[in-house]
Amino acid sequence: MFLSSLDVSRSGLPSNPPTPPTKTSDALRLDLWAVNQKLDSMKQRWEDEKRLLLGEKAVLQDAANRMNMEVRNAKDEAKRAAEVGRRSRADTREIEKAKAVIADLEAELQAERTRLRQMSTEQNRVQREKSGITRQLQRTEAVRSMTNSRSTFHLRVIRISRISRNSCRK
User: Fold this and answer.
1) In three state form, how does the secondary structure of the chain look?
2) d(Cα 108, Cα 115) in Å, to the nearest integer?
3) Domain extents for the chain?
4) How far apart are CA 162 and CA 77, in angstroms?
5) Which stretch of 17-31, 99-113, 136-150 has the lowest confidence by average pLDDT?
6) Which of 80, 60, 84, 83 is CA-nearest to residue 72?
7) Segment 30-63, tens digit of pLDDT
8) Per-residue pLDDT, 91
């Protein structure tokens, strides 16, 4: 394949005419400047959003910390309430035991009082019997004493009469 001279001359020439260097450089500079401005603007917005998000994060973190604290406090309170409830049930059982012991002691005390009243009544009855026996014994002694006195008197009288009879006979 042969190349024509026209083809050879065209192959050496650039296909597009060259643009003046100032227009291309200026346009590229303007485009670069616009892209840089846009990047700066985007960077500024990104920084603003980052600050906003960091602020929101701090607020959310603070709120989460407070919520965690409240949850811990609520759990602690629930534990304390459960402990109080458990102690209360234990105290209630102790109180019930104490009430049962007190009821038993009161029943024993009532029985003891009844027994003491019976003993007192029995003691009074025995005392009355003793007093009655003592009076009866005193009366018996008085009668015996009188009987002895009469007997002694009768014996004296009989002796005197015997003595007198004997003296009269002599």
Assistant:
1) CCCCHHHHHHHHCCCCCCCCHHHHHHHHHHHHHHHHHHHHHHHHHHHHHHHHHHHHHHHHHHHHHHHHHHHHHHHHHHHHHHHHHHHHHHHHHHHHHHHHHHHHHHHHHHHHHHHHHHHHHHHHHHHHHHHHHHHHHHHHHHHHHHHHHHHHHHHHHHHHHHHHHHHHHC
2) 10
3) 28-169
4) 121
5) 17-31
6) 80
7) 999 999 999 999 999 999 999 999 999 899 999 9
8) 86
Structure tokens at 87: 């102690």
Residue 140: both structure tokens together = 């018996």
- Written as six digits, the tokens of 156 are 């004296």
Q: Which residue has the tokens 């005419």?
A: 17
Residues in the chain: 170
Residue type, 134: T
Residue with tokens 């026209």: 6
Place of tokens 């003891």: 112
Place of tokens 């003993």: 119
Tokens of 137: 């014994």
Block residue for tokens 């209360």:
88
| Residue for token pair 């709120």 | 63
